[in-house]
Design a protein that fits this description.
alpha+beta; OB fold (Dihydrolipoamide Acetyltransferase, E2P); 2 domains; 5-stranded mixed β-barrel; 14 strands; about 15% helix; globular
């Protein structure tokens, strides 16, 4: 299916607002003419360099791809999520070109970004998944390298940021606030023993088709942000779409 057709399947002509773009900040964020920042719902682009950290691979290409669609003065349709702002007070929106074509879907199908799912903003979930799958099958953009699944035993203690990791779940732990998925380490190294996935209990209602406890013994690919927590690398997952069951 050509990329134009793929992005049109996510199209909409129902907008909450028509706005004017002042500039593109990065591959998943833009600034409107009135000064408001907009974070595009459902996608994540590689990070541009900041605070003396270098840009991630494909970050500039993702930004430039969004710029090519949304130059200065472009008019866009905004469709807000159930949660309208993030913790940085950015607007959370699905963004559309004047004809109704989905900006997120076009970025996904071209391999410039990866899908993310953050409740309660679940609109277009299935559509964005299909757009991403097309890019993955073609090995486009981020799927040639940066977002390929990393075995947990290959992670170092300083690994941070958005990643896709893979391994076999050896144990399901539970605490008062969370369910923890712990990985088997083939050779007992630091990373394999100290990487965990956390599902907060207040996110468990989103897990309707299967429960996290059913993952014991299964090989999975998990996507999200790795952070350091009590000498561990922890990845929080808020929706089952963030976990792919391999076998």
């Amino acid at each position: 299916m050509p990329s134009a057709q793929a992005s049109q399947t996510c199209a909409s002509t129902r907008f909450d607002e028509i706005a004017t773009v002042a500039r593109v900040t990065d591959g998943d964020t833009l600034r409107l003419q009135d000064g408001r920042a907009v974070r595009l719902i459902g996608i994540n682009a590689p990070e541009l360099g900041h605070d003396d950290r270098p840009a991630e691979p494909m970050a500039k290409q993702a930004r430039d791809a969004l710029k090519a669609m949304l130059g200065r003065g472009a008019r866009v349709g905004l469709q807000y999520g159930r949660e309208k702002h993030d913790r940085y007070r950015r607007l959370l929106a699905h963004v559309y070109l004047p004809g109704g074509e989905s900006v997120q879907a076009r970025l996904l199908v071209s391999g410039m970004v990866a899908q993310i799912v953050v409740p309660p903003n679940l609109g277009r979930l299935a559509c964005y998944r299909k757009a991403e799958q097309q890019a993955r099958k073609g090995g486009k953009g981020v799927w040639r390298g940066i977002y390929r699944a990393i075995p947990v035993e290959s992670l170092g203690p300083n690994s941070r940021g958005f990643k896709r990791i893979t391994g076999r779940i050896s144990r399901i732990g539970e605490s008062r606030k969370s369910v923890w998925l712990n990985f088997t380490s083939p050779d007992g190294d630091y990373a394999g023993e100290q990487v965990a996935v956390r599902i907060a209990r207040h996110d468990l209602p989103w897990f309707t088709s299967w429960q996290p406890q059913s993952l014991a013994g299964k090989k999975v690919v998990v996507r999200g942000w790795l952070t350091a927590y009590r000498r561990q690398l922890v990845m929080r997952v808020r929706h089952p779409a963030g976990i792919e069951i391999v076998r």
